[in-house]
Amino acid sequence: MINRLDEHRGITAAGGFAPLVATRDIGDSLEFFMNSPSVSGLGLPSSQTCRVVLRGPDLIIDAANEGFVRAAGRGGFLGLPSREAFPEVRGQGYFELMDQVYQTKKPLIGFMMPILFQPRKGAPMEEHMTDFVYRPIEDGTGQVAGVFVESYNRTEWARA
Q1: Would you tell me how many other CB atoms lie within 10 Å of the CB of residue 23?
Q2: Which member of 15, 68, 92, 132 has the lowest number of beta carbons within 10 Å of its beta carbon?
Q3: Angle, CA 139 vertex, CA 17 and CA 69 arms, to 5°
Q4: What is the dihedral of CA 134, 140, 142, 146, to 10 degrees?
Q5: Separation CA 1–CA 13 (nearest Å)
Q6: CA end-to-end distance (rounded Å), the chain
Q7: What percent of the chain stands above pLDDT 90?
Q8: Pair 148, 135: CB distance under 8 Å
Q9: Distance from C-alpha of 145 to C-alpha of 118, rounded to nearest angstrom
C-alpha cells in the first residue's frame, strides 16, 4: 500500500473545464476525443494517458486508446457497460463518480487516487495510483450523451 501520499490525494470539482460537445452523434467524435490535445485536462499527450469515451447512463465503453488497453491488460471491453467490463472496480467509488458527472454535468478531477485493478482475468488485484479527469460529453442540444475519462498512472512515481 502507498499510504504516505495521503496529503496529496483528493477529488475536486473541475470548475475550469467545460463539458465536451459532440455536435453530432458521439460516435462521430471518437477520433477527436482519443487524440486531440485540446480535450486533455491533465496537460499530457494522449500517448501518455489513458482515454476512454463512455456513452449513455450505462457508461458503455465506446472507445479506448492504446494507453488504456495496455493499463487494462486486456481487450474485449468495447461495447460493454463499464461495470460489466471491469467488475473488480466496483465498490471503489469510481463508477459512482462517473455517474455523478453524467447526472450533474460537472467535471471532476482526482489526484493520487488509489485504485485496485486486475490486469488480466485470474490475476491478483494490483494497487495503482492515478490522476484523472472525468468530463461530461454533451450532444448538440446540450443533453449529456456520455463521459470522457482521461487518466494518468502515477504508480511508479508514487513508489519511488
Answers
A1: 10
A2: 15
A3: 70
A4: -30
A5: 26
A6: 13
A7: 35
A8: yes
A9: 28
- DSSP-derived secondary structure letter, 145: E
State the chain's mean pLDDT as an integer: 81
Give the type of residue at 28.
D
Tracing cell 488485484 back to the chain, one arrives at 125
Q: What is the 3-state secondary structure (H, E, C) of 3-52?
A: CCCHHHCEEEECCCCCCEEECCCHHHHHHHHHHCHHHCCCCCCHHHCEEE
What are the pLDDT digits (tens) for 94-108?
999 999 999 999 999
Task: Please list the helix, strand and coil fractions of the chain in percent, rounded to the nearest 5, in that order.
Answer: 30, 35, 35
Beta-bridge partners for 115: 128
According to DSSP, residue 107 is labeled: -
The answer to whether the CB of 145 falls within 8 A of the CB of 22 is yes
DSSP state, residue 81: B
